Protein: tRNA (cytidine(56)-2'-O)-methyltransferase
Amino acid sequence: MRVVVLRLGHRPERDKRVTTHVGLVARAFGADEMILAGRDDKLVEGLQDVSKRWGGDFRVRSADGWKGEARRWKGSGGRIVHLTMYGTPLSESIDEIRSAGSVMVIVGAEKVPPEIYDIADWNVGVGNQPHSEVAALAIFLDRLFMGQELGRNFQGRIEVFPSPRYKTVIERRDEDEGDG
Structure:
């Protein structure tokens, strides 16, 4: 299943940390790509650097707006999930969502345009109390992939080895650094 996260409402001066965390969760929990509706080249470069160092095929890019991205996605046969605390409970919609071939997950910020509710195939509530969009995305992706995403091997330059007591991290040199 192809999964793309579309982040809307990003305000560079205010939301860079939360949007960065949306991207980190998207990557670590199995999404293929994050599209940032708006421009923040520094944030995009930072997430691309994480993918380069830690491995995997996760991509990040900016787009001028969300409408064109959502329309293109639907036009290519993709389905759209909008994460909102006002939606159908996740437990009632996750099986149907899993049957979709490709899913765009829309994660909003402060105020989501009403059109999002109309364009989405599913408006999904991960709980119906105020909470973080980062937490909602993590829970959604974990349920979507039934926990399998946590066992992925990213094969990057940096690798953490599980340990009950100690921090074990291996950092490999880039192949193009040479012995210089």
Q: What stands out?
A: The first strand starts at residue 2 and ends at 7. Residues 67 and 116 are 9 Å apart (CA to CA).
